[in-house]
Design brief:
Low-confidence stretches: none
Distance between the termini: 30 Å
Strand order of the largest sheet: 1-2-4-3
CATH architecture of the largest domain: 2-Layer Sandwich
Bound molecules: flavin-adenine dinucleotide
Number of strands: 15
Helix content: 25-40%
Number of helices: 7
Shape: globular
Radius of gyration: 20 Å
CATH topology of the largest domain: Uridine Diphospho-n-acetylenolpyruvylglucosamine Reductase, domain 3
CATH class of the largest domain: Alpha Beta
């Protein structure tokens, strides 16, 4: 029996399977994309899914908000999306820490941070993401990184077993973490609050206004293409692309944003092949000029 036949036969109430779905709207870059999508609404459903994958030797990719993941035109393995129920009134009260499902959006958390003055939560202001995707990427801004307020990460591993990672000072690095293993899916996390910060609403408001001015927030992008180079002679990817004079440059259905040179915009109808071709071209030009290989931030 194949993986899909087995999963469909089980008819788990918290697992929804959609075959050959148009996934264009499932990533913020809106690339032309099609694939199988498995949506899961409970931890029990996720455990069942992991065990079925294990039995059938089936790989998959987790899809958060697709804000850092340009999707392929035809996906060869299924996407897993978590859609856990969440009562938003939980975020209407001040607590020392919050236990949150991985599928909750950072926008909801930022709204709570602003309303309740939650100290330490300004670091991810304006980052489009699910909590799970933000933890995987250690999403952050000029104001900080999400890793600094994560206390525990709750995981279902590839055998369908629950694990808890207690965060230490070494758990997170720049735009990455080092505790997830192959096949791990984050289903929840505990976030701490670093006291009440009365200036939080103002900080968040000002930072959102700054982002709206300096980043193409309305264009179809997947955020930054490249990580900033942090080795000797550290340099910022956007500024380096700008120095090359490539800001605004077009390639097929793509354009380097005229607002921020590290953002790649889909002008409509672009696909992953075009993204790969263009980012390779930009990377080669950067290497020729600066002798530095910028690492891709996009998860391709
Ligand atoms: C306009 C714009 C601005 C942005 N600005 C910033 C910024 O300022 N700072 C910043 O850091 N990023 C920024 N980004 C990038 C993006 O928002 C972050 O990388 C974010 O963390 C991605 O979250 P996501 O839920 O969309 O994850 P996805 O992009 O869907 O996935 C990212 C990775 O996480 C994995 N993943 C997702 N959920 C889980 C889970 N529950 N368990 C296990 N693995 C999982 C995926 O498989 C993938 O490998 C921006 C993006 C856009 C479009």
């Amino acid at each position: 029996m194949s993986f899909f036949t087995a999963l469909e036969a089980d008819q788990h109430p918290d697992i929804k399977i959609s075959r050959a779905l148009d996934l264009t709207l499932y990533s913020t870059m809106r690339l032309i994309a099609k694939g199988d999508l498995i949506e899961i609404a409970s931890v029990e459903g996720l455990i069942h899914f992991q065990k079925t994958c294990m039995q059938h030797n089936q790989n998959f990719r987790v899809l958060g908000w697709g804000a850092n993941q340009p999707l392929p035109e035809v996906a060869t393995i299924p996407y897993l999306k978590l859609n856990f129920p969440f009562d938003r009134t939980y975020l209407e009260e001040i607590r020392n820490e919050y236990y949150l499902p991985a599928s909750v959006s950072l926008a909801n958390l930022t709204k709570a941070a602003s309303q309740l003055c939650l100290g330490g939560w300004e670091g991810f202001t304006g980052v489009p993401a699910s909590l799970g995707g933000a933890i995987v990427m250690n999403a952050g801004t000029g104001l900080g990184e999400i890793g600094s307020v994560v206390k525990e990460v709750f995981i279902i591993d590839k055998t369908g077993t629950k694990k808890v990672h207690q965060v230490t000072k070494d758990s997170f690095v720049y735009r990455n973490q080092n505790f997830l293993e192959d096949g791990d899916v984050i289903y929840a996390a505990t976030l701490i609050v670093k006291g009440v910060d009365q200036e939080m609403p103002q900080k968040i408001k000002e930072y959102l206004a700054y982002r709206n001015k300096t980043q193409p927030m309305k264009a179809w992008t997947c955020g930054c293409m490249f990580k900033n180079y942090t080795g000797a002679n550290a340099c910022r990817a956007g500024e380096s692309i700008d120095i090359l004079g490539m800001k605004g440059m077009r390639y097929k259905n793509l354009r380097i944003s005229p607002i921020h040179a590290n953002f790649l915009e889909n002008l409509g109808g672009a696909n992953l092949e075009e993204v790969k071709e263009f980012t390779t071209l930009i990377s080669d030009k950067l290497f020729e000029k600066f002798g530095v290989r910028f690492e891709l931030e996009l998860k391709i």
